[in-house]
Amino acid sequence: MTASPPRLRFAPSPTGFLHVGGARTALFNWLLARRTGGKFLLRVEDTDKARSTDDSTRAIFEGLEWLGLDWDEEVVFQGANLDRHRADAAKLLASGKAYRCFCTADEIAQRRAAAESAGGAFTYDRRCDKLDAAEIDRRVAAGSPFVLRFRVPDGETAWHDLVHERISFPNKDIDDFVILRSDATPIYNHAVVSDDIAMGITLVMRGDDHISNTPKQILLYEALGATLPQFAHLPMIHGTDGKKLSKRHGATAVGDYQHLGILAPAMVNFLALMGWSPGGDFEEVMTLDQLIHAFSSDGLLRKASVFDTKKLEWMNGQHLAKMPIAELESLVAPRFEKAGLATVAELAARRDWFHHLLEQLRVRSRLIDEIVAQAAPYFAESVTYDPEAVAKQWKDPAATLTLLTAVREALEAHAGWDPLLLEEMMRALAESKGVGAGKLLQPLRIALVGVSASPGIFDVMLILGRDRTIARIAAAERRLREMVAGA
Ligand code: GLU
Questions:
Q1: Is residue 37 part of a domain?
Q2: For residues 392 and 424, is the Cβ–Cβ distance under 8 A?
Q3: What pTM does this model have?
Q4: Domain count for the chain
């Protein structure tokens, strides 16, 4: 780690949504900046005008905002720095580190094809580097188009990567790469280095698909006389089949997970463990503050991480169960309204009741929408009986009817509505009928919510309240009578 607080950046190309890999890169940079008191900067790499869109830029901002990854200083738009990119390229030309190449794209393509058909790899043969000054002047004066190529020196380019330790490339394997096209626009590696220098970036942390760019970038830093940043290349993210994560594995855009009902803190927690570990025995479920506190580049892992949506859902369930109930309310209430269960205002008016309901349902849910789906029976006028649950739990309609009638009568005879008392009553009743408590409570559950999975039955009764509980048992009795009559 450098002595002064690091300056880190996330540099997405706005050519699509914020993908989970990009979000993970952003998160790691952000966590390290927040951990060390450094800066987290955002640079939109919009130099590819054909592929960059405002919609993508917006989607990236929204994705970062949703995750809570706020950035320092003004957003840098790479396209606005064209003059500096050109000036830096001119500096390299003036210092003899770059040269004009007049070979046309067609000529290069032909030579590449020839090299490849001869079974070799194409490398630029530096023919334009051998032109004499007068010839160059003549071509420039004649208006011949040219690109600027970086003259790769002999030797080797190596760095100490914070993830991979020492990485080195023999320079002979690096072609004299183009830095400025013939229309005077910069090539990616040149724009990135020019910007990273201007932004004072001290640690470049990005996906390891950029490893092959790094030697070229290091050579450019050196040629421009700039201090080298540190580099950290994060391992790829794979699907559960071990292949590079792609659309085939399901949603890859962060926004999709937001819409699926994943909580931002769960997404952040999950992404944080993709290529990083706090080490030792650790508690996987962490808040943002805990992550900031624990994060360090020492815990960066080298092996590819696996994006397992089952694990993400589990993680989400953990966060759902732990988050402050008022926060959960503001998150789910609009979804209740959208599902037509109750308006946000109605829910706020019965806040204690609603919180009780949420407490019961959140520990049984992994996604927000599962809370909404499970809540339906508590808002419905009447119960919709799940045929499978009925077939299983009301197998003997006549016997079930007798039991439920006894339950209703017992409840009607008592004014109290206390879960302990209810439990005592139901157990005593089951005993007096000579059946196990389950034999009574499971059919009762179908009567109250229509399905076989629900919170504890006494909590269900509490949430429904006395009148609705009794009315629902009476409705179940009517249905059972019809079943007995063979309807
Ligand atoms: N714009 C590049 C990308 O989206 C990242 C550049 C970098 O981090 O150096 O892959």
A1: yes
A2: no
A3: 0.88
A4: 3
